[in-house]
Amino acid sequence: MSKQNEQEIIQQVAELYKKYGIKSITMDDVSRELGISKKTLYTHFTDKSALVNAVVDYLINVKVAYFKSQKKGQKNAVDELFYIFKYYLSILKEFNPSLEFDLKKYYPQIWAWVKKRKREGIIESTLDNLKRGKKEGYFRKDLNEDLISRLYLLRVESLPESDLFSQEEIFSQDLFKEMFFYHLYGVLSEKGLAYLKEHMNQLKILK
Length: 207
Prior knowledge:
CATH topology of the largest domain: Tetracycline Repressor, domain 2
Order of helices and strands: HHHHHHHHHHH
Number of helices: 11
CATH architecture of the largest domain: Orthogonal Bundle
Mean pLDDT: 90
Radius of gyration: 20 Å
Strand content: under 5%
Shape: elongated
């Protein structure tokens, strides 16, 4: 089997995992759903753990590549920040809690790696945006971008573990919107506030 066919398997299994979770999809299910023999499947993936690892790596790489390509096209740090949060909102809408739950419970090593990559990605994205905003004058000159980026990460990571919000609230657009503007108004300078006021209609976070 070629690498191209192997990639096709990964892509198709990714859709199965996103829809049904990881635990409920066995290697037999994959073989049957994809119409391939188990021998062919095990030729490229020694066990289910190897397949899960390949699928998770694929899903992350696709998201990162798309995110970075679109982020580059934003004309300033404020527009970029709106894009970042709209992107996170799109992920929130398609988020399947069972996928994350299965990784945590049944594949802790893979989950630890995923968490590390997510953490690094959030820090990098937030830090780059804050530095750009300061340089352009849209964000406060006195803000500490290193501390703020880590504070933001702390808020993102701790929210799902908090008992102050229901699961419905945690994954709601209303909470997402309030968190976004809480961060936004904390970093904007006078120039940034003026820009936001002038372009608010075009920069709507929620449709």
